[in-house]
Design goal:
The structure is a homodimer.
Chain A: E1 9-11, H1 18-22, E2 31-40, E3 47-51, H2 56-72, E4 92-98, E5 110-114, E6 119-125, H3 126-139, E7 141-142, E8 147-156, E9 162-168, H4 176-188, E10 193-200, E11 203-204, H5 213-218, H6 226-238, E12 242-249, H7 254-259, H8 291-304, E13 312-316, H9 323-327, H10 329-337, H11 343-359, E14 364-368, E15 381-384, H12 396-403, E16 407-410, H13 422-426, H14 439-444, E17 445-452, H15 462-466, H16 469-478, H17 486-502, H18 509-518, H19 525-531, E18 534-536, H20 558-561, H21 567-581, H22 585-609, H23 619-636, H24 644-653, E19 662-664, H25 667-674
Parallel strand pairs in A: 3-4, 4-6, 9-10, 9-17, 10-12, 12-13, 13-14, 14-15, 15-16, 16-17
Antiparallel strand pairs in A: 1-2, 2-8, 5-6, 5-8, 7-8, 10-11, 18-19
Amino acid sequence: MKYLFLLLIVVSSNAQTKKEQQLSLMPLPQKVVVLNHTFLLTKDFKINISGNPDSRIFKAATVFLRRLDERTGLFFNQGFISKKDEFPEAQLQINCLQKGETGIHDDESYHLSVQSNKIQIEATNDLGALHALETLSQLLQNNRTSFYFPSVVIEDKPRFSWRGLMIDGSRHFQPVNVIKRNLDGMAAVKMNVFHWHLADDQGWRIEIKKHPKLTELASNGSFYTQEEIKEVVKYADEKGIMVVPEIDVPGHASAILTAYPEIGSRLSGEEPYAVEIRSGIHNPALDPSNPLTYQILSEIFDEVCPLFPGPYFHIGGDENNGKEWDANHKIQKFKRKNHLETNHDLQTYFNLKLVPMLEKHGKKLMGWEEIMTKEMPKNAVIHSWRGVNEGLEPGASLVKAVKNGYKTVLSNGYYIDLMLGVDSHYLNDPMPENVVLTQEEKAGILGGEATMWSELVTPLTIDSRIWPRTAAIAERLWSNDTVTNLESMHKRLKQISFRLEEIGLTHIRNKQVILRNISNYQDTQSLNDFTNICEPYKIYKRNGGGKKYMMYSPLTLFADACTADAADAYEFNKAVKNYLENKELVNQKIVTDYLKKWIAMDLDLTRLSANAPLIQPVLPMSNNLSKVSGLLLQTIENKRNISKAYLNELLEQFNIRNPADVELAVYDSLKKLAE
Amino acid sequence: MKYLFLLLIVVSSNAQTKKEQQLSLMPLPQKVVVLNHTFLLTKDFKINISGNPDSRIFKAATVFLRRLDERTGLFFNQGFISKKDEFPEAQLQINCLQKGETGIHDDESYHLSVQSNKIQIEATNDLGALHALETLSQLLQNNRTSFYFPSVVIEDKPRFSWRGLMIDGSRHFQPVNVIKRNLDGMAAVKMNVFHWHLADDQGWRIEIKKHPKLTELASNGSFYTQEEIKEVVKYADEKGIMVVPEIDVPGHASAILTAYPEIGSRLSGEEPYAVEIRSGIHNPALDPSNPLTYQILSEIFDEVCPLFPGPYFHIGGDENNGKEWDANHKIQKFKRKNHLETNHDLQTYFNLKLVPMLEKHGKKLMGWEEIMTKEMPKNAVIHSWRGVNEGLEPGASLVKAVKNGYKTVLSNGYYIDLMLGVDSHYLNDPMPENVVLTQEEKAGILGGEATMWSELVTPLTIDSRIWPRTAAIAERLWSNDTVTNLESMHKRLKQISFRLEEIGLTHIRNKQVILRNISNYQDTQSLNDFTNICEPYKIYKRNGGGKKYMMYSPLTLFADACTADAADAYEFNKAVKNYLENKELVNQKIVTDYLKKWIAMDLDLTRLSANAPLIQPVLPMSNNLSKVSGLLLQTIENKRNISKAYLNELLEQFNIRNPADVELAVYDSLKKLAE
C-alpha cells in the first residue's frame, strides 16, 4: 500500500513518530522529517556527482546503484558513475564541498532530502556523502509492484568520532575477503575505525620482509602479505574507514618469541617457545632489559607503520602476567638498576621506548588500559577494556584516563565475543553516568569499539558473531544518547540484518551450512528450531577455562550454529510475559504452541540422530525440554495437577553443563511458568 | 548400522556392486575392492608422511584432517602436520616415492588401503597422494554415534591427463576468493587444469606494469594484480593444479583497444572503442598489419608469461567476425601484399607471430579451434569448442586436430554456462564414437574442460552454475569410459554436492540469499519449491540475443536462484513415468501430492507478492501451473472429465517466453499426464 501522509511531521531526535518507526534506519539519524509523498524508482534513475569530492564517491555511488538494482531488479540504465557533472538532470544529485579525510577528525555530516522527483545529498565532504548513501539505501520501501523512497529530510552527523570494530586475525586467521566484507558491514552502519589485531600468542599474521622468520616460524602459513595489507587499507579508505594496526607487546608474545626466542624472558634451558594452541593468558613476554628487543621491534615498526596511513598504532600492552619477568634474575637485576619497583613500572619503561619508534613515523601510540601511567605521553590513546570479568569496575579506566588528560576509547561492554545479548551492548554508553566530567574531559572520550576476539570464531562463523549486534553498537556510537528504546532497536535490527546479508555478510546463510553438517544432510528444520532457543555459553564458559578448544579444534558444532539473542527466545519470553499478565486463551495458545513445537522437535531430533552423530550432544537438552514442555502443557492447557518438585528437578538439569556448549535461552520463562 | 560384510567382493571398473554403490565416490576410481570391516575414527587419529614428497603434501594432509574434524566434531589431537616421519605409529600413513610435478605429464596414480586399524596411502608422488586424500574424505560414513571408513582397497589413476575448468573473469569479474574456493572444488574431484580467461570485450583483468592504461582505462577498477595472480598460481599448485592463462586475441578485443585504440582495426573518425557492456560477438579486432600490435602484445606476454609456471599459454583466437578487417582498406592492402587470401589466412599470419613470443618464455601456444591451420606448429594445443549451436558437427574439430597431428582438448558438450542438464555433460565423451583413430591420434585427445563463461554469473551465483555438474564432468574425464550409469551418477552427485559445500563452495547456501531478496524477507518456502521445478532458459535464450542483460544488470532474480537439473523435476519425472506404467494408488499419490503442492504454492506466492515486487514476474507461470495441476487432479484423482483442449491451451502457455526467464522443468511430464 502507498503511504498516505496527511501531515507534515517534524521529528526531534528525542522521540520517534509512527512514520519514523516504520523506517528501518540504523544508526538513527540526528534529525528525520517525514513528508507526505514518495519518490518512485524507475530504470531511468540516475546519479550525478558535483562539487569537489574525493574520487571515492564515484565508486561508492556505483556500488550504491548496483546494490539498489540487485534489490529491485529494475535494470537501471546507468552503469558506472565515473565523471563529475555528467548528468545535471539526474534524479539523485550528490554535492560535496570538499575532499574528506579519512580518520576521526573530519566533518562526517550530511543533509539528505528525498522529494517526489528528486533526491539531494549535500555534504561538507565525501565522507558525509558516503553516509548519506547508506541512509538512503536503508530507506528503500515497496508496495506490490514498485520500489520507492518515502520523502524525508534528514540532517545527520555522528555523536562520537571513533566508532570502531576490532577483528582479531591472530587466534583464528581471517582472510582478506572476510575483512573486506566486514568493512562493507561497518560502512553500512557508518562505522569508521577498523582495529586490526595482527599478532598474538597464537600467530604472527603480518609479513615482515626484514624478519621473514616471523611468518616462516610463527604463522602456520596463515598471514597477510604487505600487498594484502595495502589492499585492505585502500579498500577501507574508499569507505571512509581508518585502519589501526595492533602488534600486541610485551605480553601475548608466544608467536614473536617462537621466531625470536633470544628476545624472550624465559631462561635458557627451559621449554622452547612455541606458537600457542590454547586460549587464555599465557606467560611468554618480551625481555625489556634486552636491547635486541627494541631493535627488532623498531625494525618491525619501520615496515608496518608505512602500510597504515592513519595516525594511530596500537601496541597492545594487556595481560602481561609478569611471571617470566619474576623468574628471570637478569630482569630483576635490571629493574633494581633502573629503579623500577614493579612489573608495571618495567612495562612502562618498555612502552615509553616504543613511543619515539612510532613518532618517527608520525604515529601516536595507543594501547590497552594497562599502559596508562604517569609517564605515558598525553597524546597516547587509552583503550578501556576491563570490567566485571576482570574484577574491576566497568568504565573506571575510561574516567581515570580523561581525568588525567588522555583520549580514550571504550571497549568494555562491547566485547561481542562473550555472546551477550544485544541489549547489554546497546545500553552501554561511553559517557559514564554518575560522574561529573568537564567539557574537555568529555571530549576525551572519543567513542568505542566492538571487539571480535577470535578464539572461537572462524571465517565460517565470524559474521554471525559480529552481526547484527554490532549494528546496535554502531547506533550507540552515532546516534543521540536518548535513542535507547529497546523495542524499536530490535525491530529495526531485524531489517538491518537482512540489509547486511544483501551486501555480502554471511551471518544468516552460513548457519544452514553448519546445520546441514550436523544433521548429516537430513532435514534441518528441527535443528533450526532448536538453535532459535539456544545460545552459546557466555563469557568464557564455552571454552572451559581455555581447555576445551585448541586453535584448530572444530567450530562447526551446534553451538556454532547458535548466536546471541536466540530469535524464538525473544518471542517466547514476550509471549510468557503477556500470558502471565493475562491468561486469556489467545495468549495461552501462543505459549502452548511453542511447547508443542518443542515436543515435536525433540521427536524429530531423536529420529534424525540415528544417522547423525553430531545431533547426539543436543539430545539430552532436547529430551529434557520435551519433558518440561509436556508437564507445562498438562498444567496450562489441561489444567491438571503436576509435580512441581519433579518439574523443577527437570528444570535444574538445564543448569548443569551440557555437551552441546549452549544454554537454553527460554529457561527463565519456563521457570516462571513453573511457579 | 555397521555393515556386515560376509564376502570378499572384487569389483572391476565395469560394474558397481551394491556395496560400492553405497559409497559416494566421484570420480569413481579405476578399481575398488570393498572388504568386510571398518576403520573407526577417534580423536587419536593421526597422520604421518614418509618418503620423498613435495612439501605440498603437508598442507594437504593438514587441510584433510581439519575438514574431517569439522565433519565429525571429534577434536583430533593432532594439529599441524609439518614434519616427515614424525609419527611412525600414526593410523594414516602416506608414503610418496618422489616429488610430483604439477601439469599433465606426471603420474597421478595412488593406492589406498583402509584396514580396521590402519590406512595406507602409497603413491608415486604427492599428486597421487593428494588424490588419495580426496577419495578417503569421500569414504567417510557414520552410524548413530560414530564415524568410520569402510575397509577398501583402491587403485586409481586418471583416464585423461587434462581435466580442466575454465573461469571467465572478464564478463563478470570473479575476485580471488571465488577463484580459490573453486580451485578447492576442482581438487575435491581430482581436476588438474585451471584455465583462466583474463581478457575479453567486457574487461581487461590483469595488471600489466608496463602498460597501466590497460587496467586504468579498460577494467572499470576490477582486475587481478600480479601479486594476486602469483597467489592464485601458488594456491593452485599446492593442489596439483596447473594454471593456463588466456589473453583472447585478435577478436574479443574491445577492452584492450579501449586502452590502445591505435592498434585496432577501426578506421579513425569512427566511434571510439569502449569497454563492452553487452554479451555476444563484437566487431573490435586487433590490427594484424600494424607492427605496434605485436610490440604491445609482446610486452604484455613478457609480463604475463613469468607469472604462470605451466607450459601452456592460451591466445584465444575465437569468433573474430572479420568485419573491422573487411572495412579497413589498409588491412585489405596488407592482405594482398602478403598473399593472404582470406581473413582466416590473415589471422593465421597473426597467430604465427605470437608463437615465438611465447616460445621465448618456454610456453606452448593453445587456442580455440579457429587457430587450426596448416601452418600452425604441431605443438599447439587445439581447444575444440564449436558444435550444434554454431551450426557445426560437435567434436569435428577434435577429430580433425588429432588426425592432423595436434593435441586437443574438448569443451564442446561441457559448456556449463548453457544451463543444460548434467546428463548431457556426463555422457559427452572426449573419445569420438564412430571414428577410427590410431593409438597416437587417441593420445592426442588430452582431455576436456568445463567452461564457465560469465555473461550471466556473478560471485553470488557462479558456484551454483559450476557445481555440482562439473563433478560429473570430472568423472567423465577421470573414470573409465564404461562408467556411464545415470542413476548411479545422480545418486552420488547428490552426496558430492554436500561435500563441495563443506569445503567452502556456495552453490547451496547462496540460493537462499537470493530467495530472501525476492520474497522481500517474507517466508521463502514456496519460492524454494518453485525453483525446484524451474530451470533458467538454456543456451542463449535468457539473454535474448545479448540484449536483455548488460554486464552490470542485476543477477539476483528468480532465474538466478534456479539451476540446471531442478531437484523436484527429476523426482516428479520419475514419479510420472512410474504412474503411467502402473496407475496403482501408491504411484498416483506421489504425482497428485506434487500437484496439490503446486496449487498451494501458487496461493502462497500470490499472497506474498502483495509485498514483494520481485515475485510478480513468476506469478503468471505459477498461476498457470496451478490451473493445470487443478485440472489434472480432477482427471487423475476424481476421475472426472476435463476439456483436453483447454488443458493443452494452458500447457501451451509454458512455451511462450515469460518474464521470469525460466522454463518449467516438469512440462514434458505434465504433457504426458495430459494425453
